[in-house]
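Data card: per-record layout.
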Amino acid sequence: MNKKINNFSENKPLVSVIMPAYNAEKYISEAIESILNQTFKDFELIILDDASTDNTGEIIREYADKDQRIVSVKNEKNLYIAGNRNKGISLARGKYIVWQDADDISKSHRIYELVKKMESDKNVGICGSYIGLFNEKGIQDVRTYPSSDFKIRSAIFKFSPVAQPAAIVRKAVLDDVGCFDPDYPPAEDLELSFRIGVKYKFANIPEVLILYRLHGESATYKNMKTIVKNTIKARMRFIDNPSYRSNISDYISILLTWLVQFIPVHVTIKVFEVLRKLFI
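The structure for this 280-residue chain is written out next.
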């Protein structure tokens, strides 16, 4: 990558990293440090404190006072995931948007690799990577994803084929297809991916570029039934779209997704992981 695009530009950075944060005092410092320590330097970090009631806001302000790349935003009331991401997008000055959850950790070369991929293929609208699943005991598993547009497109009715915590997306793509739809919480990332895929290519980098924290407070564990309902809603909206060649296995997957909401959450997550591995 040309060194010229890797120098921080105060007026218009190449990348806008968006980090929503709610009561994240336990983990947010690690998340922020993982972005500030990137090998790629031409970014702004927009951190949105979603009306936290702990010390999250104070931690954000301390970092913002030390580093000019940080943009600190305080919400007076909760905007939740879609609202925060959309607000961050509206404030972003970069050509690319990168997501960073306040409890995850990016590998030091994450942004560099994502930008390099996007710069090399102008038709890619969104790109993700493998993610490492970790907790206080270390990395527990690696979640892999198909890397070609064809395979990603073929898998989209079976699982979300671009991991939102790992993703980069062109700002111009969001200007074109729209931002996150708040009617699909917390599966708004899948619904947005469907819309992006109608007009643009998908991609994934076959390498772990981010560590996704596993804990009982995460949205996946707390909102499983809602995830299932809105995942099915998003899939059915695009099941007949000519950009996606759905088949009988896709309909079976939708049925299985509906059924798993009636079993315990920890079993549901294991079932989803088995289904993912079957179709990669």
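Known properties of this structure: The chain has a mean pLDDT of 91. The domain at 1-120 is CATH 3.90.550.10 (Spore Coat Polysaccharide Biosynthesis Protein SpsA; Chain A).

See the next section for split statistics.
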